[in-house]
Amino acid sequence: MKSFKSNFVTIIVLLLLSFQNVKNVAAQINMQHESQMVQIEKLYASQQWSEIIKLEPVLLKHAEKDLNALLILSESYAQTGNITKGNSYAEMIIAKDPSNYFAFMMLGNNSYVSKEYDQAEKYYLKVLEIRPTYARANLNLASIYEMQKKKEKAISQYFQAIELFSANNFNNEVILYSKAVLNLDPNNTKAKSYLAITTE
Question: Would 148 be classed as within a structural domain?
């Protein structure tokens, strides 16, 4: 009986030690992972896309709790010229979160770079459907319409962006894109009015 108790206690002790070891290993892995994510943030800030791609397994692990990790991969692949892989990660995000306008923006930018302007337009319009105040989508649409010689549509998108910038007191942007409107329509009184207000 004593032998059984002794063995039982030994087993319990071993189990507790084993559990503690598992906790220690898990903590070490978490610390290593967090350290790697800090490294990735620095690489992203300095636009070292190829170095980020080398850490793809880390980002995929992090993506289990934060889809922004997939956005980083999407942009990194696109920036290194692998548009197909970049798009695949953006589409993966949308499959998990259809309201993620950053992923649609990424698809729009990749289409823009690939000169697939009709496709880019659809993605940018989707961005604005989800997030009407995302002025960058308006500006990219304006750029597309300018290239397509659709002057009125380009001006309309510029003004939507200008109104957002004006509401948030981004005066430099108001001036810049008011001048863009005037390049298309030198007599545009609305653009002149925005310029007059912001340069007073």
Answer: yes
